[in-house]
Design brief:
165 residues; alpha/beta; 2,3-Dihydroxybiphenyl 1,2-Dioxygenase, domain 1; Signal recognition particle alu RNA binding heterodimer, srp9/1; 2 domains; four-stranded mixed beta sheet; 4 helices; 21% helix; globular
Length: 165
């Protein structure tokens, strides 16, 4: 018998402070809370008809270790945005609210902002670069081609061959 995974369903994170993390995901990422349960879990989804939950958080055990860049496990979770303007908006919101921005990058296939949640987990918001654009500017579309802070801040226009609508 063969099977085919149709998509990534959801991620569940253990967090130190559920209320703090709930505020972070609702206020910084605009993720709507769709449910909470008796175990202290909080569930988020942008479209419950399409996906009952994309992310859930739950309380960690008292004294649990914080994530570190060298631990084995999830490296990051990403959320796709529709436009470059939305990516700029997320970047500004993070900066205005003291969210730790780990780095920004043009990957070829996407433009990304990597940031940490209150527990130090790494997340990414990104927008896709159309193939007809990135094929003009990069030899390998799954790599790193430098920071995009100046573009995100509006100091310079999007570079030719990297333009996202």
């Amino acid at each position: 018998m063969t099977f085919k995974i149709t998509r990534v369903g959801h991620l569940v994170l253990r967090v130190k402070d559920v209320e703090r993390s709930k505020r972070f995901f609702t206020e910084m990422l605009n993720l709507p809370v769709v449910a909470e349960n008796e175990r202290g879990m909080v569930f988020f989804s942008t479209d419950v008809e399409d996906n009952h939950h994309m992310l859930a958080i739950m309380p960690s055990k008292e004294g649990a270790a914080m994530p570190s860049p060298d631990h084995v496990g999830m490296q990051h979770l990403s959320f796709e945005l529709s436009t470059f303007a939305e990516l700029q908006d997320a970047y500004r919101r993070f900066k205005e609210n003291g969210v730790n921005i780990d780095h920004t990058v043009y990957h070829g296939v996407s433009k990304s902002v990597y940031f940490n949640d209150p527990d130090g987990n790494l997340f990414e918001v990104y927008c896709n670069v159309p193939p007809e654009e990135y094929k003009k500017s990069v030899p390998h579309p799954y790599s790193r081609y430098g920071a995009i802070d100046d573009e995100l801040e509006g100091k310079i226009p999007q570079k030719v061959g990297t333009v996202v609508p």
